[in-house]
Each structure stands twice: as structure tokens, then as C-alpha cells.
Structure prediction request, 184 residues.
Amino acid sequence: MSLLVIKFMNGFEINKIIASVLATVLIVFGITKFTDILFRVDKPSQSAYKVEKVESLATDASTVAASTDISSLLAMGDIQHGEKVFKKCSACHMIKAGGKNMIGPNLWSVLGRETGAVADYKYSKALIAYGKKWTFDEMNGFLIKPSVHIKGTKMAFAGLKKERDRASVILYMNSKSDSPLPTP
Prediction:
């Protein structure tokens, strides 16, 4: 008989525990619903902080490239510094005579050639359609922010913001050529 009483009490105790957990959950949900009704909060019709559009940043990058005097920009750079900065580019690009294409095309003799001209590399449609030569000015504008300079390019590089870095990389890339362009 005592065994039957112990089983009954264990089942009864479990029921009390389950009932108390359910009651707690119902009370918590009930309080939150009641407070939502009691304290109604209206959202403001206009946000207090406005975020500037991304397009204005894109315009700034193209304005900087257009207003830069390329000869004074290139005077800031040097080839040794450009070699160091180019290490950011070397994750995707090789710059060797007869070198292979990587994620990006080989950049040997890039300055002076047509955009999208490496035969065994699959360029984006935007870069193929761009139809210009890589001059010092073009490369400067592109290196500021590639996606702004040539809209639709698949190059996902954020760009080089520092003028000295851009000038140095341009001078370094120009030095890595069969026939380097004369610097202005």
C-alpha cells in the first residue's frame, strides 16, 4: 500500500510543477499584452536622424578624380612606396611579364592599353563597354573607387583614399611595363 501512495504523490507533484510553469508563462504573456494596451506608444512620423544618401559619396569620389591635377598628384608618389601599397592589389592581381591572370587580370603594361583588353580574361560587360585607355587620369579615378568610376565593374575593391598611395601605385604599375608612359 505504501508503494501506491508514493507513486500517486510523485504524479501529483509533477502535475503541480507543470501547472505552476504554465501559470507563470500565462501571467508573463498576459502582463505584456496588458502593458501594450495600457502604455500605447506612437511612432514619430519623421525620423529624428536622417542618413545621407550613398550617391552623394559617389559624386564626391568622381569630383575628386576630375579636379585632381595628375602631375602634382604623381609628384607625391614614389615607386618603392607603390610596391608596398600594391600588396593590397596582389591578392587579386599579378604584375609580371607573361604572368597569369588571377581573380583579376595581369596588370603588366596596364597603363596605355585599352580597358578590358587582356584576351584570356573574362571582364565585366561594363569594363568592356567603357572603351577608353588606361591613362594616369583614368587609373587615378578608378583607384579612388572602382565601382563609382566604372559603374557595373565586378571589381569589389574599396579604393585607395590617400593621394600618395594612389600616386605611388600608379607610378609602380607604370614602371612594370614593356614601354612605360612618360610621366606628365
Summary: The chain has a mean pLDDT of 84. DSSP finds eight helices and no strands in the chain.
